[in-house]
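Chapter summary example.
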Amino acid sequence: MPQIVLIAPTAFKGTFGPRAVAEALASGVRRALPEAVVLNCPIADGGDGLLEAVLPPGALRERVRVTGPLGVPVEAALGWIDPQTAIFESASACGLALITLEKRDPLRATSRGVGELLFEAVDRGAQTVIVGLGGTATVDGGTGAARGLGWTFADAEGRPLPEGGGALPMLASMGGGWGLAARVVGLTDVATPLVGPEGAAQVFAPQKGATPAHVTHLAAGLERLAQMFTRSGRPELASLPGGGAAGGLGAGLVYFAKADLARGAEWVFERVGFDAALAKADLVLTGEGMFDRTSLVGKAAGEAMRRAQAARKKVVVVAARAEQFAGLHIVSGAGQTLDARAIAALGERAAREAFGLPAA
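The structure predicted for these 360 residues follows.
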């Protein structure tokens, strides 16, 4: 019987989405194993590539003009799973990819566009809105998204606070916004809480352009926001797993939009039928652009690897860059930026190594 190979990568951030990576890996596998049955199952975890993994090519996607991370309007993608269920990536409204490296400013960056997209989705008939949390330029605790839903924020003198996480240490009052007649589900790829030594500012702000002094300032702002949540009867939001996702947007959506948080990889895997495909597979190829310790805690590639190992399947992780881990079979591109041809070559190599075939 021919081997069955399940190909389940997530996006190679900044280069290829999960579907393109899966197709490239599949072409390489077929060179190594011409008779193999290849099952393509692109995956995501709430971050980059969520819509591509979940929505079929012909699904409805709308372009919606919303406020970008630094206030300049952007065109965000709003997808539809069905007429009552909308889905979008928060990064399409306030993502790091929307800002050049020299303009990154987590003190000013706002998640307002996320709230505007939520409002637009519900206004267009959504009864459930799925929000992927990941890849944002913001550390504003979701207060920007709340502004997009009509909330107001002021200092002790009653003056409106500027947008962005940098103003949050001065937060003294919050004015309620509009209710949403829909269920909101935030998909997280991390378990990071809003505050604490491993909170959103400490973990994520440096990669968004924050200096050590900025990190301290942003952490103080999120602490202040957590205090306001506590005064309003929600003390658990300070330590809620996933509350720190997307610079605190996770906790913010729970408070301001009454959202539920879910582990993104688990939600996506159920949606795309990963376990059913896994049951048939002799080999699983998963991967992402950078596979490291964070990949093992909530990320899609790490979850695919974990499930494959639990099912006693051969599994190979393919990545452009990777840390090496004992007991894991990893094939990497040695840190290079990979094109489709190079990804295919890694797929061929992975298949040959997995089945003990000679190198090409």
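To summarize the output: The chain has two domains: 21-31+286-360, 60-265.
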